[in-house]
Amino acid sequence: MDQLYKIAGTVMGFFDAFKGSRPAIDNKKILIVRGRSRKVIPIDDLNKKLEEVGKELGASEVTNADKISDILELGDKQIQSTETVTGVIDSSGFMKMKQELETLGLVAAYKVFEVPGCNIVIAIWEDKNEVPPLYVEVTVSRTEG
């Protein structure tokens, strides 16, 4: 099985969001899968759960803002190589998305990871009152453009 699918499957399985999940983008360079789970994670544990799935993947967390921006730009190029042009990448897009979700009464968390050959971005969000569903999005992209 391809590494992109293994990683995405592990993430969806970890959050119990595999059933009904579907790829938003699936090409040879990047895979974006979205799903939802009936699982509820206490708000204070969202980041901890992201760290746990990163460990399960054997991944290293990326915390350097410039490196995160580079990863997002590479992913955007990989999308544009086979999809309709998405416009210029906004490296602060995750923060904007998080703020928009919070205005809707949701709480969001995300982390960026690396494994040999792949970059991984995992975002999760749920109602601030800790009621289902938990939404999960994982982006797995090859480190080569």
Q: Secondary structure elements and their pairing?
A:
Elements (H helix, E strand, L loop, with lengths): L2 H12 L7 E5 L3 E8 L8 H12 L2 E3 L2 H16 L12 H11 L2 E10 L2 E10 L6 E9 L3
Antiparallel strand pairs: 1-2, 2-6, 3-4, 4-5, 5-6
Strand count, sense and barrel status of the largest sheet are: 6 strands, antiparallel
Radius of gyration, rounded? 14 Å
Q: Structural class per helix/strand content? A: alpha+beta
Beta fraction: 25-35%
The strand count comes to 6
> What is the H/E string?
HEEHEHHEEE
Helix share bin: 25-40%
Overall mean pLDDT: 89
End-to-end CA span = 21 Å
Number of helices: 4
Strand order of the largest sheet: 1-2-6-5-4-3
Protein architecture, described:
The chain is of the alpha+beta class and 145 residues long. Helices cover 35% and strands 31% of the residues. Strands 1-2-6-5-4-3 form a 6-stranded antiparallel sheet, with helices on both faces. Strand 4 (106-115) and strand 5 form a beta hairpin. It is globular. The mean pLDDT is 89.
